[in-house]
Design a protein that fits this description.
heterodimer; A: 268 residues; Immunoglobulin-like; 2 domains; B: mainly alpha; Cytochrome C Oxidase, Chain A; two-stranded antiparallel sheet; globular
């Protein structure tokens, strides 16, 4: 029985570890400035936890086999423990866990403590059951007012987010169902929801943030590679949660300007 | 205590007083145990339907028919709620705790037998209430076991958010009341009714785990109860605790100024300690069994007690780690993250001490020991994904993905259930006077261990690849569709593992009626439940009050006549250090 346990526990441990090392299923290729830091911290955590995982599981299996009761087994070592060992173990784990935490925290602080710098592209993201809308403030750099009384989700576009078209600042606002961003420029995101909680998750950009009704949450990030990236809603929002899907097109600054100008032209 | 003594002068004779509205903690413990077994089969059946739907969305199932996307969300909501409350909270504490806490401290019953009966029947009403949600118009709610408003607060936010959601929250509120009654009883009993010589530091680690769990329950369930009442008021009385001005389906709702994050704070203030409510009794029973079957004292008894106290204390200060992506201040994420990492330290101490207990031991491999070793393995595997999720910066990628689902299923789901299986195989001989079948116990163990790893380990890979949770189908998002082979593998593993559980049920019922008779102390264990008759008499010790001379785990004592010294044996043993 000891041998069976050793074989099964080691098998589970080694097979599980294999897929983490082989990266058969892995983080999508990162396409934002934060991806390098986040992936690095992830790998560091994985290596450290992996060592503890292997050490604990392999010794568990080994002990089960090595110390199985046999007629020839020596008497057990009668011991209630060892204070020195407990202290060493406690200090080591504390240093490991807190050290890891502090390293990750510096990245978090850079991401979330400061506001976006000047010159960032402004985009407002609005979540509703079960679609994402994106609003660009236009040449005036100001968002027009919105009102719940004007919201008509079935109409889509400007009406869905309740844009007050009589507001002068709203005249040049562009509302779309697909997100376009220029590459290598910081994005100043403003996140809203009109009904329930949604979560704006773009795995390739290493970005996630809940959109909460009643709050206007500001976030920033910088896409660094041209491409198309999928948005998946990450907070249960109702029966259509699974199809609350969208696309981010990261394009060159030139293409972005052209795209935005075309939307402005359509609007006039 | 006078009350307990009067109640227990004579055992009641009528069927109803003896088996239905019994005041005997042993009968109540068995009632909780069977309630939990009923609940776990309901919960498991729901998860089977979920796994089938994910892989074969168009399947037309017998009895159930075709599962629609909203039905899938209903299944996950009810699976989570039933498993967390009526299995993970009910069996380890209400079931085994009720039965064995009084016996292990040498008491004739719980401090408040009537309250004990009341808390069971209140739990039963809560269970009926949640099952009723399936059968009302609109069906059960779809807002997940965490029930985040505004989704859970607005009737028009989705199907099932009508009467079904009211029954859901009412059931949870009733359950909270029952748990508060239970917690008071456990605390009073442990503090007041210990036998002579049973000092706190001589209590079995199982008793410590039930005691600390009761403290957590007392502090956590009150908060959830209040939160639930506020949610009911938002839903039915037009208040706006959790709901700001929102527009659902083009309709302006009659709410203003509420905060959706308030619910999350209150819910997780309960929800995180709840994780420890589920797992602490498993830690207790694992310690007890590892020591007994290793024939060695537990390694670092005091460190184990302090570690459990540390886990309980820190468990109340980490709730914000569920909310890193919620819009909560990023500064507070900093503090919650650091405290969460700290909770890994006592957890690591426990693992180290379990390995230390097995080191240079003479291990016997009966089924309870297999499950205790399985618990350690799962606790390590589930625990080590914690330090990933505790870091807000990694949560950016991992929050609300299958990585989280794999993490909490391994640790608070399957590890806790392995604790219950260990407890069942270990104590059924005492409870029903018959031994469970060893061969089928071993088959059940290996199938379940391999099966649960096969279900839950791939969830980590899914999560790393960005696999979002709570999706009824993975057809709408291209990168998620590519992950379907993993889902297929997990579904096959789930079908086999769920099938294997019937081995357990058949073994249990066969044992209760046909199993070979158990002796008073079949495992050669040292704690008080093994000093009395099998099954124990109505007052637990047949009119004798036990006197305790030692700590709970005196195995392999040099110079002793046998390789174990009972807690009630007056011979001297070397002082523990």
């Amino acid at each position: 029985m000891g041998l069976a346990l050793l074989v099964v526990i080691w098998l589970i441990t080694l097979v599980s570890t294999y897929f983490f090392v082989a990266k058969t299923w892995w983080l999508p290729v990162g396409a934002s400035a934060a991806a390098g830091f986040i992936d690095g911290q992830f790998t560091l955590t994985l290596v450290l936890m992996g060592i503890v995982f292997l050490a604990a599981q392999l010794s568990l299996g080994y002990f089960a086999w090595r110390y199985r009761e046999q007629p020839s087994s020596p008497p057990v070592s009668y011991s209630h423990g060892n204070v020195k060992l407990e202290v060493v173990w406690t200090v080591l784990t504390t240093v490991l866990f807190i050290g890891l935490n502090l390293m990750g925290s510096s990245v978090w602080a850079a991401q979330r403590f400061d506001a976006a710098g000047p010159g960032a592209v402004q985009v407002e993201v609005t979540g509703m059951q079960f679609a994402w809308y994106f609003r660009y403030p236009g040449p005036d750099g100001r968002y027009g007012g919105t009102s719940v009384k004007l919201m008509d989700p079935s109409a889509g576009g400007e009406a869905a987010v309740g844009l007050n078209t009589s507001d002068p600042a709203a005249k040049d606002d562009v509302v779309t169902g697909t997100m376009y961003l220029p590459v290598d420029r910081e994005v100043d995101l403003s996140l809203r929801s009109v009904d329930v909680i949604h979560s704006f998750f773009v795995p390739s950009l290493r970005f996630k943030q809940d959109a909460v009704p009643g709050l206007n949450i500001h976030m920033h990030f910088k896409p660094t590679a041209i491409g198309e990236y999928e948005i998946a809603c990450a907070e249960l929002c109702g029966l259509g949660h699974y199809k609350m899907h969208g696309m981010v097109h990261v394009v060159s600054q030139e293409d972005f300007d052209k795209w935005l100008a075309a939307r402005e032209a359509e609007k006039q | 205590m006078a009350t307990a003594a009067t109640v227990h002068a004579h055992a009641p004779q009528g069927f109803i007083r003896k088996y239905i509205f019994s005041l005997d903690h042993k009968v109540i413990g068995i009632q909780y145990f069977f309630l939990a077994i009923t609940a776990v089969f309901v919960g498991m059946f729901l998860s089977l339907l979920m796994r089938i739907h994910l892989v074969w969305p168009a399947a037309n199932l017998p009895l159930v028919g075709e599962i629609k996307p909203e039905t899938y969300l209903t299944l996950l909501t009810m699976h989570g709620t039933i498993m967390v409350f009526f299995v993970l909270t009910t069996a380890p504490q209400g079931g085994f705790g009720n039965y064995f806490l009084p016996i292990q401290i040498g008491a004739p019953d719980m401090a408040f037998p009537v309250l004990n009966m009341l808390s069971f029947w209140t739990t039963f009403v809560a269970f009926v209430c949640i099952i009723a949600a399936f059968f009302v118009s609109g069906g059960a709610p779809l807002h997940g076991w965490t029930g985040y408003p505004p989704l859970s607060a607005l009737q028009s936010a989705g199907p099932g958010e009508g009467l079904g959601a009211d029954l859901w929250i009412t059931s949870i509120a009733i359950f909270c009341l029952a748990s508060l009654m239970g917690a008071l009883n456990f605390l009073t009993t442990t503090l007041d009714m210990r036998a002579k010589g049973m000092t706190m530091m001589r209590m079995p680690l199982t008793v410590w785990s039930w005691f600390i769990t009761a403290i957590l329950g007392l502090l956590a369930f009150g908060v959830l109860l209040s939160a639930g009442i506020l949610l009911l008021m938002d839903r039915n009385l037009g208040t706006s605790f959790y709901v700001p001005l929102v527009v659902v389906n083009g309709q302006i709702m009659q709410h203003k100024g509420g905060s959706p994050l308030l619910w999350q704070h209150l819910f997780w203030f309960f929800g995180h300690p709840e994780v420890y409510i589920a797992i602490l009794p498993g830690m207790g029973v694992t310690s007890q069994i590892l020591s007994t079957f290793s024939r060695k004292p537990i390694f670092g008894y005091k460190a184990m007690v302090y570690a459990m106290l540390g886990i309980g204390f820190l468990g109340f200060m980490v709730w914000g780690h569920h909310m890193f992506m919620s819009g909560m201040s990023p500064y507070s994420a900093f503090a919650f993250s650091l405290l969460t990492m700290c909770i890994g330290v006592p957890s690591a101490i426990k693992t180290f001490n379990w390995l230390g207990t097995m080191y240079k031991a003479r291990i016997r491999f009966q089924t309870p020991m297999l499950y205790a070793i399985g618990f350690v393995s799962l606790f390590v595997s589930g625990g080590l994904s914690g330090p990933f999720l505790a870091q807000p910066v990694l949560d950016i990628q991992l929050h609300d993905t299958y990585f989280v689902v794999g993490h909490f299923h391994l640790i608070m789901g399957v590890a806790a259930i392995f604790g219950m299986f260990a407890a069942t195989y270990y104590w059924v001989p005492k409870m029903f006077g018959r031994m469970m079948n060893e061969t089928w116990g071993r088959v059940h163990f290996f199938l379940t261990l391999l099966g649960t790893y096969a279900i839950f380990m791939p969830m980590h890979y899914l999560g790393i690849a960005g696999g979002t949770r709570r999706y009824s189908q993975y057809t709408e998002v291209a990168y998620l569709t590519k992950l379907m082979p993993l889902h297929q593998f997990m579904t096959y593993a789930a079908i086999i593992t769920i099938g294997a559980q019937f081995i357990f049920v058949i073994n249990l019922f066969w044992t209760m009626f046909k199993g070979p008779k158990a002796s008073d102390n079949p495992w050669e264990a040292t704690t008080l439940e093994w000093t009395t008759a099998t099954p124990p008499p109505h007052d637990n010790f047949g009119g004798v009050t036990p006197v305790v001379y030692h700590g709970p785990y005196e195995y392999g004592v040099p110079g002793a006549a046998k390789d174990y010294v009972m807690q009630t044996d007056p011979v001297s043993v070397p002082a523990a250090h």
